[in-house]
Amino acid sequence: MGFIALKMLIGDRAKYIGIVIGLTFASLLMTQQAAIFIGIMTRTYSFLTDFSLPDIWVVDPQVQYIEDIKPLRDTEVLRVRGVEGVQWAVPVYKGMLRARLDNGTFQTCSMVGLDDASLIGGPPVMVAGQLGDLRQSDAVIVDEVGATGKLARVSPNGRRVPLRIGDTLELNDHRAFVVGICRVTRTFQSNPVIYTTYSRATTFAPRERKLMSFVAVKAKTGEDLKVVCAQIERVTGLKAYTCDAFKKLTFTYFLKYTGMPINFLTAVLLGVVVGITISGQTFYNFTLDNLRYFGTLKAMGTTDGRLLGMILLQALTVGAIGYGLGVGAASIWGSWAVSRTQIAFRLPWQLLAGTGVAVLLICLGSAALSIRKVIRLEPAVVFRS
Amino acid sequence: MVANLTPANASRRAVICCGLTKTYGSGPAAVQALRGVDLEVAPGELLMLVGPSGCGKTTLISVLAGVLRRDGGDCTVLDQDYNKMRRNETTRFRGQNIGFVFQAFNLIPSLTAAENVATPLMINGARRRSAVSAAGEILHRVGLDERMARSWPADLSGGQQQRVAIARSFIHGPRLIVCDEPTSALDSETGRRVMELMRELAVKTDRAVIVVTHDARIFEFADRIAYMNDGRITRVVDAQTMSAGEK
């Protein structure tokens, strides 16, 4: 009977294509919008993604998310080092400063200051130069996208020339010498990222009484991170987060205090509505058009259970095709957009599963209306002209 | 008028109905479609039900085919009382024992002629390949070749479609076939051929055929003709002994 169900479905070409297009569009919209949202949200903690070596981040207790920096005294790093369970602890500077470009305009950059001795937390990928070159005088490493984009020089003929090793920058009225180009995870603000040593970063930074942004901590092997965090908090009076907790804090802040979730949720809901209205309505119309044949099958001895199975098979078939095409189109679009633009796009398996469940619910909802109609159908209808 | 049947001859009848009633709706809007129908049909018999529009013919074959429940009276079809069966049991019983021919053919447009004919076998659990193969042989018997077996219903003439419908009605070996106006959508010559086919292939010693019709030109194919009026069978005549005037 599955064969008959599928032939009935595919036989009505216009409706079949209409249902599949509706589900494809719904699936595409839900996947693409949610993937952009997830991409943007993961950028909010991209610094933590790249700075992956520490287990624990020690911050001021009032810090609400990673960009909400309330500087600490430099001596705090020594106190943290003294806590039991800590293997090492290094100071980290993170802040915004202005770079003056050749044409006189300014560009806000994100500066990361690494521990002078260990250079822990350096960029994940060096495209040119070496991390150790940061020990040279006035040395900085610039991220690839910033070097080719916002920090690129403009030649006399108007072409943009990317920053290269050996070029100089002016950062807060200080000379900075480019010794490397790196690749980093894009930031939420999409500003260029500049790495230097902690002590140099504090000289580039505007003068403040306290300058250390965080203490990055590595716990001893086998230590329970939550216990170490509690120890640090008890001893220093500061707040200590595990890496995942700090990411979650940042993620939650953006979820709570920005309008992004509502905006993206609206787009995702639009996808669901499109799915229900176009596909659901068309599927129901398809059933109504075929009611006479369902009645004929019923009269000829097809039980309600088998008719239910036939309709479910039809609904799940169009659902699977629509889902596959929609998710496929979203993936292709995403990989194209990521390779050519700065768009944020992430497609984790949980999103694919979520879209699948949404499409499944749309299909089951559409099928439920049709099933109700067919199950209630009196087989005697076949004798009415 | 058909007399009530005694238990002794009941077992030799495909259909035995006594005092059958059926009412649509309730209250002042109620319409009594059957007002006490008495009818018997023997295996190997082709019975035609005739009468004016609205007299209850279609309601009667719906009840006999088990697609509509009666309200009152007694009715045994192939030794089974539908009102004593559960809904799914009735459905399965129909699938195994009843064949249908409809006025508008009711062939599924997205299935080929052979696949349409194979449908009752698939409903009864046969595999598609063997069912379609069996359908091809049956279609050959009703005069449709292999090319036509692979055709879509829309590509066939009315007569060819009704042949497909007839083939579908008996492919699974039912013991009762009900036909609703099988020739009304056909010209007279095609209608005669369809009835010849029905007589030749569908009517068997162990199978009864009930045909609802308005078409007096096909009365000659009947064994008996039951006249209905106002929800009752008013008379039953032997078609072979009818005079031309009666027809």
Description:
The complex is a heterodimer of chains A (385) and B (247). Chain A is an alpha+beta fold. Chain A is 51% helix and 18% strand. Chain A has 12 helices and 12 strands. In chain A, the strands form 2 sheets. Chain A has a 6-stranded mixed β-barrel. Chain A has a two-stranded antiparallel sheet with strand order 6-7. Chain A is elongated and about 95 Å long. Helices cover 33% and strands 24% of the residues of chain B. Chain B contains 8 helices and 9 strands. In chain B, helix 4 packs across helix 5 and helix 5 (128-141) crosses helix 7 (158-170). The relative contact order of chain B is 0.19. Residues 1-10 of chain B have low confidence and may be disordered. The chains are: A alpha+beta (385), B alpha/beta (247). The interface between A and B is medium-sized, with 28 and 32 residues.
Intertermini distance of chain A: 26 Å
Give me the CATH superfamily of chain B. Answer: P-loop containing nucleotide triphosphate hydrolases
SSE succession of chain B: HEEEHEHEHHHHEHEEE
Mean pLDDT of chain A: 90
User: What would the principal axes of the Cα set say about the shape of chain A?
Assistant: elongated
The rounded distance between the terminal residues' Cα atoms of chain B is 18 Å
Question: Order of strands across the biggest sheet of chain B?
Answer: 5-6-7-3-8-9
CATH third-tier fold name of chain B: Rossmann fold
Q: Secondary-structure element order of chain A, as H and E?
A: HHHEHEEEEHEEEEEHEHEHHHHH
Largest sheet of chain B: 6 strands, mixed
Mean pLDDT of chain B: 87
Task: Tell me the Rg of chain B in angstroms.
Answer: 18 Å
Regions of chain A with pLDDT < 50 over 5+ consecutive residues? none
Return the domain count of chain B. Answer: 1
CATH first level of chain B: Alpha Beta
Helical segment count of chain A:
12
Structural class of chain A: alpha+beta
